[in-house]
Amino acid sequence: MTDQPRRRLVLASQSPARLGLLRQAGLAPEVMVSGVDEDAVSAPTPAELALALAEAKASVVAAKPEAHGALVVGCDSVLDLDGRALGKPADAEEAIARWKAMRGRAGTLQTGHCVHDTLSGRYASATASTVVRFGEPTDEEIAAYVASGEPLHVAGAFTLDGRSAPFVDGIDGDHGNVIGISLPLLRRLLAELGVGITELWAPAAD
After folding, report:
1. Pick from 189, 100, 191, 188: which is nearest to 138 by CA?
2. Model pTM greater than 0.85?
3. pLDDT of 2
4. The pLDDT value given to residue 122
5. Where is the active site (predicted)?
6. Residue pLDDT, tens place only, 184-197
7. How many CB atoms lie under 10 A from the CB of residue 188?
8. Which residues are catalytic?
9. Residue 59: which pLDDT band, with cuts at 50, 70 and 90?
10. What is the mean pLDDT of the chain?
11. Most exposed of 41, 154, 181, 194 (fewest Cβ within 10 Å)?
12. Cα–Cα distances in angstroms (integers) from residue 149 to residues 88, 91, 166, 182, 186, in the given order
């Protein structure tokens, strides 16, 4: 009796944070960027927008010939602050205004997840939500953080695994979800498609 070959896993995202989390969890995804125009996607709520974007990215990559046979994972994150969906700030000025609005308050980081099985044509999707409690950085700290360039590349203009970590007082929910992908939710979505996450583990290094 021969073992079934391990299914290919494709991450439909260029996020190094998502890739890093998956690798830390024993997975070895390939990366294929979707090229989806995020500004062209709309939805009634931030949670629905995050899910729509994740589904769009996974669908586009799943349709690529080079993804045939793979399990394709699409994700997208937005920060829900007062019912508004905040993605990556357009420029430094917007990032500064965003942080001045967020400090001392709480927002909800919504990350849409979608897994496409290109063999069966089936997919499973859901959104994970994590409450983020922001600290109260000074105007000078905000200016220095924005000048670093980091907030221009991340949803909500902050991240837990970078320079803004000292400005976040705490979270309620999944830490990984804020960084970019909820591994517990990914496991559940794979299970819906009949795939155990341990089946996707890369062989341990010698």
Report:
1. 100
2. yes
3. 43
4. 98
5. 76
6. 999 999 999 999 99
7. 16
8. 76
9. very high
10. 95
11. 194
12. 12, 9, 16, 25, 30
Tokens for 200, please give them: 């996707």
Tell me the C-alpha distance between 123 and 119, whole Å: 10
C-beta atoms surrounding 81 within 10 Å: 20
Please tell me the distance from the alpha carbon of residue 117 to that of residue 36, in angstroms, as a whole number: 19
The answer, yes or no, to whether residue 206 has pLDDT greater than 70, is no
Confidence class of residue 205 from pLDDT cuts 50, 70 and 90?
A: low
Residue 158's nearest CA partner among 78, 84, 93 is 78
